[in-house]
Specification:
- The chain is an alpha+beta fold.
- The chain has one domain.
- 20% of the residues lie in helices and 23% in strands.
- It has four helices and ten strands; from the N terminus they run H-E-E-E-E-E-E-E-E-E-H-E-H-H.
- Strands 2-3-4-5-9-8-7-6 form an eight-stranded antiparallel β-sheet, with helices on both faces.
- The longest helix is centred in the C-terminal third of the chain and has 17 residues.
Amino acid sequence: MFAAAGLCAAIAGCSSRHPQPISSAELAQAESFPYYRIYWAGPHFAGAPLTAVDGQKSYNSEIGESVYYGDCAHSDGIFATGSCKLPLQVTTVIYRFHSNSSLGPQHNSVVRGVPATVYEEGRSIELYSGRVAIDIFSSDPALAMRAANQLRSLNAPGSASAALPVPVYCPGLSGAIPQALRALLDKLPGDVCRIAGERIRVSRESAATH
């Protein structure tokens, strides 16, 4: 939820010409990103090449690091009307507590062994892992879930077949929490969800007395 999906920006290849895959020098910027693990779906995804990465030079801690696949130009070079919708954008950002209630219709699940929220009719997925949130924005629900199942770290060892590291925080989920997800939340390190729930309860009780 930290980055708008599919904006028609030059960095993402929204032009009348299809962009080329990024150069090895551009990719090296992301591979050497020093602050935390960032995630991607490999050099190609669903037939679309990796066409842009944010890199350390343009890093903004508020919006995180993104990788972009493909473009939104038609084969005849004519844009689709409305906003550009890339096949895939993956954004990794340090998690800051927020409520997911603003995301609209959504459902919570366990994806790749970590808590996840699926919204925008399945086209967007936010996964909670380690110290970060991994936001997937896609043009199609099937592609979004496919990307989630192909995620691996770009700047650290990792595998698309392994579970992601569980979060060290309790995500601000909204709505129903399935049993499997509840069991996972209850087992997070440091009992973080119980502690977070207690803090919220105390805060509400304090507000009610004032």
